[in-house]
């Protein structure tokens, strides 16, 4: 388990008490460059001042150079040094502040103290989390000017040495909440060196990995000195406690999965899926243009922005054709239309929520190839069969409301058609260097890429059926390699 280190100007500035953290002075930390060699501690830098080139500033600067995770970062110190540097955050923060006041119009305080994104006044809990997303710092002071529309006059660091006894108790509680973790992963067979967070929602209907699969990964990772812990959407503030992040929820740039990816990147943590891969893969319009620009064969496609494109799509693609919402996933937002009447009706309906739609040539096959690619190398190959009495691998509109999936057949990398693997690798080279699932159809005219998924299924007994534990070992080593280099 990673350790937490609290840096202070002098020992008397923080009473460690029963807190299970190492406390040391900034001077001692700066003087010993080999301290915590081979570890990646989280550094909590407490100070009276964080001015440029102060001892606290250099402590955070060198923590980053040493590969330690530190709060606050030098970027945060600089951002909060002048109002003009954080002015772009003010509108969003003031909106959140006034929303909280509208729900409970009691007299707002002129000063709000926020510790690790937590606040004593429950009215401002969401506001506190938002400001912590903007400026990750142990203690912040927000000066508020009350009025019909409350405004933020100033955001600055707050020295914990100034805390009264009641605030000190809350600060300590917030510290423990920030650094605390509920470990549920397998106990490592060797001393753990790394701790990986896995973002997972056990209530999701079609998660990219099942809970049983993630427990299996935890057993494999433990043999390599890695602890795995599931986290949920509410754990964003604790993300810096970990060394890496594996997102195993369905990704979307409009929900918390994208925020987790961005936060991980801000913490310089290896992450699957990274934010740019999400942006590139979750939009089918972008992917189609990207594949076409790089010479990757895709089904004949027509963009649809209005009625003027319908005849063009029908003439080019014929019927039936496939209509897609750009940011759909798991076969949702993808419909087959049989004629112009169906096409026009569906287009009018879907254009209410999306400015662009995608029409593609219908290419019926008994199964789709899925090639898993990790770091530019093939990870697994699988065939997904169409759902019974359906043209897709997943049928969502069933009588009982539960998705119906087709069967699968795993294929070893050695036995997979070279053309299928080759086109998958070429497709992912356009996207990034993370984990992808490339959906491919094999036709009489050759292979074509249907889409590149940034969040592919990796389930024990399915995608790993041929390559076995090599799949999970490769995933673990992908993260470790980036931590070590």
Task: Give an overview of the whole structure.
Strand 18 (394-395) and strand 19 form a beta hairpin. 39% of the residues are buried. The chain has helices spanning 26-31, 55-65, 74-79, 83-86, 90-103, 125-134, 165-179, 211-222, 256-266, 275-281, 284-293, 310-317, 340-350, 418-429, 470-484; strands at residues 4-8, 22-25, 42-45, 69-71, 111-115, 139-145, 151-157, 194-199, 226-231, 244-247, 271-272, 301-304, 321-324, 334-337, 357-361, 367-374, 377-385, 394-395, 404-405, 408-411, 435-443, 446-453. It is 31% helix and 23% strand. The protein has a five-stranded antiparallel sheet with strand order 20-17-16-21-22, with helices on both faces. It is globular. With 485 residues, it is of the alpha/beta class. It folds into five domains: 4-79, Oxidized Rhodanese, domain 1 (3-Layer(aba) Sandwich), CATH 3.40.250; 89-177, no CATH class; 181-278 and 468-485, Response regulator (Rossmann fold); 300-361, Dna Ligase, domain 1; 367-453, ATP-grasp fold, B domain (D-amino Acid Aminotransferase, Chain A, domain 1), CATH 3.30.470. The model is unreliable at 181-189 (pLDDT under 50). Helix 5 packs antiparallel against helix 6 (125-134).
- Tell me what the CATH architecture of the largest domain is: 3-Layer(aba) Sandwich
> What's the rounded overall pLDDT mean?
87
CATH topology of the largest domain: Rossmann fold
| Number of DSSP E strands | 22
Instruction: State Rg.
Output: 26 Å
> Sheet bearing the most strands, described?
5 strands, antiparallel
Number of folding domains? 5
**Which stretches are poorly predicted, pLDDT < 50 over at least 5 residues?**
181-189
CATH superfamily of the largest domain: Response regulator
In the CATH scheme, the class of the largest domain would be Alpha Beta
Class by alpha and beta content: alpha/beta
Relative strand content: 15-25%
Helix fraction by DSSP (H/I, runs of at least 4): 25-40%
How are the strands of the largest sheet arranged? 20-17-16-21-22
First-residue to last-residue Cα separation: 20 Å
Helices, by number, come to: 15
Shape, please?
globular
């Amino acid at each position: 388990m990673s350790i937490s280190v609290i840096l202070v100007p002098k020992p008397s500035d923080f009473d460690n008490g029963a807190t299970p953290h190492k406390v040391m002075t900034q001077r001692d930390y700066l003087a010993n460059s080999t301290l915590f060699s081979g570890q990646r501690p989280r550094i909590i830098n407490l100070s009276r001042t964080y001015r440029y080139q102060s001892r606290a500033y250099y402590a955070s600067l060198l923590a980053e150079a040493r590969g330690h995770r530190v709060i606050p970062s030098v970027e945060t110190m600089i951002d909060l040094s002048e109002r003009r540097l954080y002015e772009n955050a003010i509108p969003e923060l003031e909106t959140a502040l006034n929303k909280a006041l509208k729900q409970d119009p009691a007299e707002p305080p002129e000063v709000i103290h926020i510790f690790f994104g937590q606040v004593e006044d429950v009215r401002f809990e969401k506001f506190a989390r938002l400001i912590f997303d903007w400026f990750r710092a142990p203690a912040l002071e927000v000066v508020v000017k009350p009025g019909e529309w409350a405004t933020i006059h100033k955001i600055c660091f707050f020295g914990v040495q100034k805390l009264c006894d009641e605030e000190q108790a809350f600060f300590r509680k917030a510290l423990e909440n920030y650094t605390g973790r509920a470990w549920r992963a397998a106990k490592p067979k060797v001393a753990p060196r790394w701790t990986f967070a896995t973002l997972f929602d056990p209530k999701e209907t079609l998660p990219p990995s099942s809970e049983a699969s993630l427990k299996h990964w935890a057993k494999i990772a433990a043999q390599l000195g890695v602890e795995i812990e599931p986290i949920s959407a509410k754990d964003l503030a604790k993300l810096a406690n970990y060394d890496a992040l594996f997102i195993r929820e369905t990704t979307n740039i409009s929900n918390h999965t994208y925020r987790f990816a961005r936060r991980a990147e801000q913490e310089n943590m290896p992450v699957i899926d990274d934010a740019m891969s999400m942006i590139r893969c979750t939009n089918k319009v972008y992917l189609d243009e990207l594949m076409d620009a790089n010479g990757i064969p895709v089904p004949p496609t027509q963009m649809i922005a209005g009625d003027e494109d319908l005849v063009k799509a029908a003439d080019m693609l014929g019927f039936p054709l496939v209509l897609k919402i750009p940011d759909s996933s798991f076969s949702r937002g993808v419909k087959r239309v049989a004629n112009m009447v169906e096409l026009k009706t569906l287009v009018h309906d879907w254009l209410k929520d999306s400015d662009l739609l995608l029409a593609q040539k219908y290419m019926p096959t008994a199964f789709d190839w899925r090639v898993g690619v990790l770091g530019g190398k093939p990870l697994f190959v699988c065939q997904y069969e169409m759902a019974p009495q359906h043209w897709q691998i997943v049928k969502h509109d069933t009588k009982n409301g539960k998705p119906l999936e087709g069967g699968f057949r795993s294929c070893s990398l050695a036995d997979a058609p070279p053309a299928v693997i080759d086109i998958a690798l070429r497709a992912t080279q356009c996207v990034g260097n993370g984990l992808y699932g490339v959906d491919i159809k094999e036709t009489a005219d050759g292979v074509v890429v249907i889409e590149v998924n940034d969040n592919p299924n990796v389930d024990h007994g399915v995608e790993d059926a041929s390559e076995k534990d090599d799949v999970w070992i490769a995933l673990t080593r992908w993260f470790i390699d980036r931590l070590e280099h």
